[in-house]
Write a structure and sequence with these properties.
alpha+beta, Butyryl-CoA Dehydrogenase, subunit A, domain 2, Butyryl-CoA Dehydrogenase, subunit A, domain 3, 51% helix, globular
């Protein structure tokens, strides 16, 4: 019976894609159903990253889809589908492709692209995005403590970064540091194996356990001028990358809700209590409708944002609204799903506990819900509630 039921995309936003994009999205679903979904809970339980999957993921040829001519809507739905199968794999994909590889496309010199771009797109080398610091998250623009000091044809890097996804194993990092001479923020392509770079895995996480987050310390790390991102002149360039990635977090929030709905509906149909399926109780049906409604509303917001991106009209307030709105809906959706599973909702055996926990990371990173709400509030009132 379940195979005949409608998906959580109740209003059919996927139909807005071009036919070749729909076919490609189905290829992504087929890959995820075979290679990711059956294993995701075990990876999460063990807090281990599945490096063996990288060549298969690369074979999808989906690095920076918009750069390859796909639509923004398609790019977002890919992130939603990756997240639907496993939030951690989606996060790896976004950090590597939509931050590191996108930065090479946008800010890299011809030499840097020649040396690194193709291998990065094919996942022969992996990348990270090193911005957040131990004492500076949302305020890192004004408070960045990591420094870069020019020394002839080299730079000397000192400081620390925290919560760096892929940080324990990546080959390169897009590392942000403040120029001690000018005070401006610069970007560097850091070889993560250089002397003076120390990487320590962050443990004891309750979310995104498969993602290998790292504390990174830099002690007199010498890096060539040829590895400074030539096109990055200030923190405004950082914002350009964060605008795109913040929008993709909204798509992650969609994927979390699709995953929660999938698991909750299947459980409600199959689980029997008091002689009938849980789905036969009015309260459970109402909860499932609310979950679907939240997912559909979030899809609607993100589809419109994709249109704005295509028109060149996206900006940070709209990206902040997308992230804050969808993650708030997501939090309600995953909580309802966890409740439908009862006691089984707090163990990863049925996947819902993992979905519920991973949602907390999505709610917080790329600007917390509160910070993004204040960005929107500033746009609405013209008054800033933070500096």
């Amino acid at each position: 019976m379940e195979s005949q039921l409608p998906t959580a995309d109740f209003l059919g936003f996927e139909s807005l894609l071009a036919s070749h994009e729909r076919d490609k999205l189905q290829d992504v679903r087929d890959f995820l159903a075979k290679e990711v979904a059956p294993h995701a809970v075990n990876w999460w339980n063990r807090a281990e990253f599945p490096h063996a999957i990288l060549p298969k993921l690369a074979a999808l040829n989906l690095s920076t889809p918009v750069q390859q001519g796909y639509s923004h809507l398609f790019s977002g739905l890919v992130i939603a589908e990756l997240t639907r199968a496993d939030t951690s794999i989606a996060t790896f994909f976004m950090v590597h492709h939509d931050l590191f590889v996108e930065a090479l496309h946008t800010f890299g010199s011809e030499d840097q692209k020649e040396r690194l771009l193709q291998d990065a797109m094919e996942l022969k080398i992996t990348g990270a995005f090193a911005l957040t610091e131990p004492q500076h998250g949302s305020d890192v623009a004004g408070g960045m403590a990591t420094t870069a000091t020019r020394d002839g044809d080299a730079w000397i890097l000192n400081g620390a970064k925290r919560w760096i996804g892929n940080g324990t194993f990546c080959d390169r990092m897009l590392l942000w540091a403040r120029d001690t001479e000018t005070g401006g923020v610069r970007g560097f392509i850091l070889d993560a194996t250089l002397p003076g770079v120390t990487r320590t895995a962050i443990g004891n996480k309750i979310a995104l356990r498969t993602v290998q987050n790292a504390d990174v310390t830099l002690t007199d790390v010498r890096i060539s001028e040829s590895d400074r991102f030539a096109g990055i002149e200030s923190f405004d360039d950082t914002r350009q990358l964060l605008l795109g990635s913040r929008i993709l977090i909204g798509w992650q929030a969609v994927g979390q809700q699709l995953a929660a709905f999938d698991v909750a509906r299947q459980y409600a149909v199959e689980r029997h209590q008091f002689g009938r399926p849980l789905a036969g109780f009015q309260l459970v049906q109402d909860q499932l409708v609310t979950m679907m409604g939240n997912a559909t509303a979030s899809l609607g917001v993100m589809a419109r944002v994709a249109q704005l991106q295509a028109e060149g009209a996206s900006d940070m307030p709209r990206a902040a609204f997308a992230k804050s709105f969808t993650t708030a809906r997501m939090r309600e959706t995953v909580a309802l799903g966890r409740g439908i599973l009862g006691g089984n909702g707090i163990v990863t055996d049925h996947a819902m506990a993992k979905i519920f926990a991973d949602a907390e990371a999505v709610y917080t990173y790329e600007g917390s819900y509160e910070i993004n709400s204040l960005i929107v509030g500033r746009a609405l009132t013209g008054v800033s509630a933070f500096t």
